[in-house]
Amino acid sequence: MCIDALDSIRSDYLPASLTVVGTFPSPNGNPFGLASDGSFLWHSDRASHLIYKLNPTSLTVISSFSPPIFDPADLAWDGTYLWCADWSKGKIYKLNISTHAAIDSFPSPNGSSFGLTWDGQYLWCGEVFAQAIYKLNPSNGSVISSFQVPTNVFGLAWRSPNIWAVLGDDRIARFDPSTGTLLESFPSPGTNPRGLDWDGSYLWNCDNATHQIYKIRIDEGPPLQNFWEPTALAPSDVDAIAINANSHIFAGTGGYGIFRSLNNGNNWTQVLTAQGEVFVNSIAINANGHIFAGAGSGAVYRSTTNGNSWTQVLTATGNDVGVYCLAINASGHIFAGTDDGGGMYRSTDNGDSWAEINTGFPNDPFFDMYSLAFNSNGHVFAGTDQGLYRSTNNGDNWAQITTGLTNGIVESLAINANGHIFAGVFTRGIYRSMNNGGSWTLVNGNPNDDVNSIVIGPNGYIFVGTRYFGVYRSTDNGNSWEQINTGLPNVTSLLSVESLAISPNGYMFAGTNSGVFRSVQPITAVREASVHESPTSFLLEQNYPNPFNPETDIRFQLPKASHVVLRIFNTVGQEVRTLADGQFSADYHQVRWDGKDKNGNLVSSGVYLYQLQAGTFSQTRKMSLLR
């Protein structure tokens, strides 16, 4: 019998499951307490007032004795002595198992002790009426600490680093003993659970209604994988990211020019430091791979050599004018928006010449432009510090569009495949228009923060980078949002996500004030965790990427919790590596192979087989490694 978690809040692992691997009748039909000494299982019976010594394999009785206890409840073993809670008298006894005498006793903290366990140094006591768990000094019973639990406590077990408890609502629960947080809970295998113990391999639970003692295996869920991981770019303020068709990444920084990575962020090279230019606010790349960089000095630089050399092609006029946004439409026309009243510029000849296109914009020396976007009809949208503007004639004329959209600072823009426009408004969150900007609504559950960047994934998911709360994702066109920040450092006021970009090979990159971070897995190759679809069949999917170098991800799905073995073989059938061998929950899973054998050595190029075994299911696929 497999028992899945009723609830789970653990952030580092998927929920565990409990599997009953043995069921035994109790010696006298009224079991109340359990403790293991490493060789034998000790069991208290309330009806007979006896404590039994049991064979842990068969649970046959080896011996028994009558303790000097009126109403024996749960037990605990400290390595030398057996402890027993007297439920009716509200006392805890320390027993010599050779003489059966009480060596010591002290009152329980609240007079209703039932559960007991030992953590290697301290005694823990669970109270019925107080609905609390106490950490006790074993020498005098004084309370060191305690925490409240949802209901009565009828049994305790220590399984480092957590404490497990039998609760009065017929649950077996796991708690963090340092905070008292309920991590997860499970329905008990019986209907009136009492004593609990962990023997180092199995959890034991006795039930007063079924008169059974259960041997239970704990199957931990696999660790949750971080969404983000750092790249090799040293911590720096990264204001802009752009990625070309070859997945080469260009990161514009607020102090060090532009860095380029040719290998998915694993290594970086500084490529733009021309004329001492170091503040790069925006980057755009056209269909020919030409790169354009907007700088804080008001300059636009162009590289036709993948960043190896640069030429200045524009100097915006005005005092302290900087180029804050760049975008290129389907015709290759380049738009450059500036701050401090510098206005908008357009080039129709790949940056060789530029024209100012400001008809409709306010004549304001402090007018700032922050974002640009194009829809499939070629309409241009410009986010400014005075709301949103639209041009339907390639920038020749602009009109402010405000219905439902306040005249706030529009810091970011993105348009999806359906033409829906998403605007990040300073301190107000995200607004959406489904009619080309004609009207706007503030989306529900939106990130109420400074939205610095918006990007639309190939699957239509929306990702936003914020100034104070990391990255959010919406999988339902902006109707609801969730944070995806695991792997990012200091997601508080210390971290600002300035820019987001998705590479052709499916990885998402985040430019922050602490460098560049990369999604651990391609967002286009895996089923997102927010799509809570339960798999209905076993399946081993094709690895991604394939061919690969140096690593690849292997996905599989399980319709039920299963013991999984995932192995790599060469073409002559020799095992190269075991990637997984353990219990997995019913869900979608992914395992990464780094191209190394079981000894940690890099394997050579060639074709390899990977095989999934889950219970009686088995499937094998091929993959290719190209060094």
What features would you describe in this structure?
The protein has 627 residues and is mainly beta. It has 3 domains: 218 residues, Methylamine Dehydrogenase, Chain H (7 Propeller); 292 residues, Methylamine Dehydrogenase, Chain H (7 Propeller), CATH 2.130.10; 87 residues, Immunoglobulin-like (Sandwich). 0% of the residues lie in helices and 48% in strands. The strands form 14 sheets. Strands 1-3-22-21-20 form a 5-stranded antiparallel beta sheet, with no helix packed on it. A 5-stranded antiparallel beta sheet has the order 2-19-18-17-16, with no helix packed on it. A 4-stranded antiparallel beta sheet has the order 4-5-6-7, with no helix packed on it. The protein is elongated and about 100 Å long. The protein starts with a strand and ends with a strand. The relative contact order is 0.07. About 1% of the residues have low confidence.
Outline of this structure?
The protein has 627 residues and is an all-beta fold. The chain folds into 3 domains: 2-219, YVTN repeat-like/Quinoprotein amine dehydrogenase (Methylamine Dehydrogenase, Chain H), CATH 2.130.10.10; 228-519, YVTN repeat-like/Quinoprotein amine dehydrogenase (Methylamine Dehydrogenase, Chain H, 7 Propeller), CATH 2.130.10; 539-625, Immunoglobulin-like (Sandwich), CATH 2.60.40.
